Amino acid sequence: MSVKVIATAADRRLLDESRGTRAMTWIMAIMLFLTVLAAALGLGTLGAAALLDRQLAGRLTVQIVEAVETKRLDQTQRALAVLRTDPVVTRAVEVDRAKLTTLLRPWLGADGADPDLPIPAMIDVDLRAASDAAVARVRDGVRAVAPSARIDRHESWMSPVRSFMGMVTLLAAGLVLLMAAATAAVVILAARAGLETHRDTIEVLHMLGSTDVQVARLFQRRIALDTLIGGVLGTIGAVGVVLLVGWQLTTLGSDLLGGLSLGTRDWVLLGALPFAFAVLATLAARQAVLGALGRYL
Q1: Count of alpha carbons within 13 Å of 218, Cβ hemisphere only?
Q2: Side-chain half-sphere CA neighbours of 278 within 13 A
Q3: C-alpha pair distances (Å), 160 with each of 46, 49, 124, 164, 267
Q4: Is 289 within 8 Å of 219 (Cβ atoms)?
């Protein structure tokens, strides 16, 4: 009974003396706050990249670059006829000139509405399959009837943006791993400091028959509790920031930025982070304490 009472008292005194001012709790809150923000950025960017891939897959723009209006109109109609009869094409629609004028207004100003301005005709095309063979087939068919046609894949236009999204996702994943490593390092330092501070108490526990594993469990429980409480606090704060940023993005009205949203799976992963970090901290504390006890006690 006396051993149990001493062990319980040691458990309360290990690491920090005051439960309300325990440094580990606030350190872990900061760690998880930053980790959840980085993870939310990575998951949101990953989702936006996947949405962008789905939107751009199999989409083409056919431009009829012909200065003579009659020839341009003729080639446009011929190209539309070929596209609408091609089985790999699911949609082929000519872009209205008024819409093109609106799109060009930032560059051409009022001159964009001049009917004599030779603006290329544009056709939006959706393919059934986004394969190179399908694109080549459409390109050959259109150029056979419209020699001035230029076919552009939307994927090629947005490839720099897609590459940037991939880089941001990898950077966010790297930050999460870095924060996990930093958390393990903080736990190891705290456990070793606790061993040195309470070395006399631990020696008494050993003399009363406690094993290294039992002593390590005292540290595990305390560090796991501190990590979980701090992690939940940090996660709540980070989720609030993520919701605020998400609301701000929806007010911008941008389709690309609007894709930076989190799904159910993403929220579950974010919610699991404090528990995962608690497990990581427990394992790190156990290994640190057992290793230190094996060396000098």
Answers
A1: 26
A2: 20
A3: 15, 12, 21, 6, 28
A4: yes
Is 192 exposed, middle or buried (CB count within 10 Å of its CB: 0-12, 13-18, 19+)? middle
Residue with tokens 């094993």: 211
Minimum mean pLDDT range among 9-23, 92-106, 137-151, 244-258: 9-23
pLDDT reported for residue 9: 47
Please tell me the pTM assigned to this model: 0.70
Bridge partners, residue 152, by sequence:
61
- End-to-end Cα distance, the chain: 24
Q: Which residues, 6 or more positions from 131, have their beta carbon under 8 angstroms from its beta carbon?
A: none
- In this prediction, residue 114 carries a pLDDT of 59
N residues, the chain? 297
Those residues with Cβ within 8 angstroms of residue 14's Cβ, 6 or more apart along the chain or in another chain? 194, 198, 218, 219, 222
Per-residue tokens: 244: 């605020």
| pLDDT digit string, tens, across residues 44-54 | 888 888 877 77
